Amino acid sequence: MSALDRLYRQVPALLMARRNLSRNRLRSGLAALGIIIGVLAIASLGMFGTTLRTGATAELGGIGNEIQISPNAEEGFERLTDRDVADIRRVTDEGEVVPIRQETATLTRGDDRTIATVYGIENPGVLYEASEGQAPERLRQGALVGSSLAERLELQVGNRITLDNESYRVVGILEEQDGISLLNPNGAVIVPLESFDESGYSQVVVRSPSGTAANETAVAVREELNDREEKVTIFELGSITEGINQFFGILNAFLIGIGSISLVVAGVAILNVMLMSTIERRQEIGVLRAVGVQKLDVVKMILAEAGLLGFVGGFLGAVLSVIAGLVLNQVVLSDPLLTFAPVNLMYIGLAVVFGIVTSVLSGLYPAWKAASERPVESLRK
């Protein structure tokens, strides 16, 4: 005896429900199709939102753990001093402090000339990695060139470039920086901090091990440097990622709401199917009631039919949702296994449960109507 047969023996209402639904396979199939579409819509739209959020987060990378500290020009502060940098280092419990000087210079290589942004950074290895050569922890000589600038000028490690009147040997080509970055070096040149004649710094970037640590550093810097006057402005990229997460949370809820409408429509279709079924089987139900079958048993039988439609539709909808998720994540993120992320499985589970609950609720009125009719009146019609 199979497990399904044992289940039917223990719950005879399921066996009757299966037989009753088999009488009109086309009508039952169409009712289940509504549930399939509803479950597929909810689960797929939920996974679609998750995929968009994952893609956006990947584009942003780990920028949520960085803050940018700049002099407040509106209050008349043009540069950050060595003392300001020392105060920032003192209040930074976790993370690396990177003071930066910046200017624009004419870059010359052979007959090629272009205007390039030049950053003076003592420790560029904290922020960047090199695709060729190396990005040292302490840059004492030579220059690092951004990827797009190096490609445009066909620069390689060992070449020499001239920035205004200073000659530098290229010691590294930086990896291309994708997405949002506080300091995008793709079209820039990084030279030792001491190469600048001026004193002071145009900005300071603090890279912390986590977004929480970056936020704590930002609070500490504000309290230390802006105690008496608004000396610096602080830009936290973590606020951008937080805003993006909130946006995609709202978008997910909106998409799931749209998908839920299809399940409500499916519920109305099941209500219609169950009503038609109970009307056609009125005399059959009357006979059951006449031989002693209780009202509750009739209600169970009708609800079992509705629940079985919801279960079958939900199961097939879940299978199709997984297939849709595999295709979506492969096309957008090139990682189909993200379909099985916990949040996506939650969407699929919720869609199946919602589909079954909708089906059972849709069967309540037909069940109550069939069970409430007197056997004599049912047999007379």
UniProtKB/TrEMBL annotation:
Cited InterPro entries: ABC3_permease_C, MacB_PCD, Macrolide_Exporter_MacB
Keyword Transmembrane attributed: yes
Domain ABC3 transporter permease C-terminal: 258-373
Pfam families: FtsX, MacB_PCD
Domain of life, source organism: Archaea
Subcellular location: Cell membrane
Keywords: Cell membrane, Membrane, Transmembrane, Transmembrane helix
UniProt keyword Protease present: no
Annotated transmembrane regions: 28-48, 247-275, 308-333, 345-365
Membrane topology category: Multi-pass membrane protein
Family recorded in the similarity comment: Belongs to the ABC-4 integral membrane protein family.
PANTHER family linked: ABC TRANSPORTER PERMEASE YTRF, MEMBRANE COMPONENT OF TRANSPORTER-RELATED
Protein name, UniProt field: ABC transporter permease
Species of origin: Halogeometricum luteum
